[in-house]
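Objective 1.3, modelling of assemblies. Example input:
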Amino acid sequence: MIGDVSSQPRVGLVLVSHSPALAVAARELALEFVGGPAPRIAIAAGRADGATGTNATRVAAAISEASQGVGVVVLTDLGSAVLAADMALELLNGRIDARVVPAPFIEGLLAAVVRASAGDDVDTVAREASAALDPKRALLPAAAAVEAAAHQEPDAAPFAEIATVVTVRNEGGLHARPASEIAALASGFSADITLTVAGRPAAPARSVLSISMLVAGPGTMVRIAATGDDAREAIDAISALIEGGFGEAIVGIDGPAATEIEPHRAAEGGALGVSAGRVVGPVAVLVHRIDEPSATVILAPPARRAAAAIVVEAMTSAASAYRRRALKVDGHRREVLDATAALAEDPLLIDTATSAVRERGLTPERAVWEAVGRAVADYRAAGGDLADRVTDLIDVRDRVIAELTGTEPPGLPERDAPYVLVADDLAPADTVTLDPTRCLALVTEQGGPTSHTAIIARELGLPAVVGVAGATAIADGTLVLVDGDTGEVIVQPDAVAQATATGVITTAPFTGPGQTADGHRVVLSANVGAPREIARAVERGAEGAGLFRTEFCFLDRADEPSIDEQVEAYREVFAAFPGHRVVVRTLDAGSDKPLPFLTPIVEPNPVLGLRGVRTAIRDPEVLERQLRAIAEAAAVESADVAVMAPMIATLGETREFAARARSAGIASVGIMLETPAAAITAAELCTVVDFVSVGTNDLSQYTMAADRMSAALAPLADPWQPALLRMIRLVGEATAASDTPMGLCGEAAADPDFAAVLVGLGATSLSMAARAIPTVGARLADVTLEQCRAAAAAACAAPDPEAARTAARANLG
Amino acid sequence: MTLTVAATNDWLRRFARSVDDNEQLLTDLDAAIGDADHGSNLRRGMLAVVEQLATEPAITIGDTLRGAGMTLISTVGGASGVLFGTLLLRMATLTGERTTATATEVIAALRDGLEGVRTRGHAELGDKTMVDVLAPTIDALDAAVTSGASLADAASTAAIAAQAARDATTALVARKGRASYLGDRSIGHVDPGAASTALLFAALAGALAEAAAVDA
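Predicted structure (tokens):
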């Protein structure tokens, strides 16, 4: 036991821990914070034999040691420490006024030591210890929301809040750079500082992200509030910074219109146009989550019973809605929806929510928010399968709250009029029901040039901009101008800007055959992933399908499609390209794209896991049956059908796949070149196949070791990275030496200049989104093979993507 | 027949032996849904109890149970020590200075012990804890005694009820202790505390049967 026995007795503290080392270190840490005489801090940690554990008799002894007659506060770490402390109080039988407090171990100890050394009474010490997590909650508001800890003690803040309102004056508003300047300045003060814009949750001034999320454009009024001993200084400094305009141009602001959102470019730095077209339309935000309901509204007791009934009704009605949606789909999606329906009417969840209404007077929406929040925390803590269900739980919460508050439920907006879809990110599931005749353009906060959003947008021929920070904060119905070439997103464009919208770019269809100005033949074909894309491919003049993704037949199914079903699906595609080449990629599934009928696997790193052709290691029959179906379908159609395997890494895999395909009766057998391993050994691989096809998306991801879904890593995912170009060059040299046709089927082929470079690197066919075929065809018809080769050599030799692009363009003229 | 000091000693010794024999089983059960220390923790505590019974023999039922309870509380180091300790301490309070306890007194003491465990652990029936064995087993003991069975016969009936109650925890979702972190995934596993509590009643039945045989 440590501590000064000074003349004035102080509240004693006891640390109950499983680990003596933890308790001793915590005590040392806490004593560093003590100004005055330290209180007595006794430790009860570990079992009697010294091992990890707790010991109630030792706790009772420690309480006696710590007591100076004015009370003892007991802090526990976890589990049996609480039981042991409780037991100890029983053993002491009321002889000492000891309080076991529901406080976090470290923070609670620090708060208690400070209070006890100041000579406060046991009630105060206990209360301060119990509230010790509040500062961390304030710093980490998102985590606090999940925890849904509404039952906080009445705020005993020693300082009153002071506040002021300033108007944002700089052209760009509080985007990322000004936000980080504010956060840096705020960190220099001890006061708790928040920024608030009407209609949005308060942003802690130390959080760059939260400030950016305010989307405070020029003219926006921002309320700065602070509590703490340097609150006044903090507010003065921050308002001066905001009014100073951050070194940007100052926008003239006059009159009351100032609170409207002024036209501004949202987040210039990260925004990236990924699919061409310039359109204007009203925003519809894809709601993934909803605002946290207020915890401070308390229902009067007479209203609570009816409010509890409303909770039950909303939850059961949400469950029925899930069941209705389940009936419209099959397979895995139906199972998930049925399971989610069960979550929505889980008796424990309903009970927790209704008791919170009845006993604490919470509003129905707040009660649901907290009840689910608690379940989410439990599920997260449990990890594994349960943690995977957190998304479903949150969906339940959001739908029930949307119903209770009459707001838009999460999911694709239901609109009859055209709209610009804005989302934080789009998952393939979000876009299954996306109607390209209603949706004008896509804008997302996340995602890079080869993200799902980009791929979907190009497939559907929609303009798209990704990486637009703060986009989802744009109010529903706000008019925006979206330019998928320049990456511009202009909120509330004026008439002049609106007039610059050219709509979805349309070009005359390509009339092949594809060739360079000097007659070097390059087959230009389309990537096809679903029957709905066939028509567009044919319309744009595609010379066949260079990548036919077969996943569409398999997704959303609980069982594997029969051979007959597969034959029918493949024939539909083959029939659209009579006499043309159709390259079928065998099923590209795995732990990243799980299918119910493939052996389930859990991998920490699915992108580097059992996917693509590797699934045939575990489920060879699925591949066998698919090859038979392709061969059968090919036999009755006139398309020139070839088959290739995804995710090849070795010669052994190539040999095995080629043998399987040939014995199934496939005439032309190839492989996808999308791993560095395959590129490096391309010469050997070419000896056993009829063709190769470079998949730039994955080859880039694996070469650069950069997740292509990551917006932060978008510069690494740039196809003009010299490393990727040289990787493709390796393949080009190997195929040229063995006279093996080299195709290319990544998103990058849709960039006309890049397409020319690919031809220079040895590509004999290019497959791309149908939309790009006319522009790529026109570009190639403009340049000679010699120019393409010179451009390729210059790009490969460049030090970085920007230089590669410039060098290539210089050579292409 | 009644519970004597000797039978109480025998009960605790039998329980200790049974925990020793089943240490691995208890630990395995705990490994599935907890932190894999129930068997070793309880074994350590009960070995200390046995040693104490030998070195400091008590002369009342109350002192015997109180000594055992305190030993468990100070040696086990986990929640099970506090909970079994609470059960025995509460029983000790009610049996007090007696050297024999009637069936009714034993049942009342057990009920008080159950109440203590319930309060200490904030556990209710259905939370997948030792309460799910204690409560129905005491009820079975009570019912058997009420219908005229001897304490020894009633304890045998109760021991069987305890096993059934133990097995029934398999279907429950844990809501207390570390197992509650697993939520639904705790379904399909016997609760380790329920398993050790069933051993406690098997030991009681054994001790009382032995005592009855000696009496006869």
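Chain A touches chain B at residues 46-49, 51-58, 79-80, 83-84, 86-87, 378-379, 381-382, 384-386 (CB under 8 Å).
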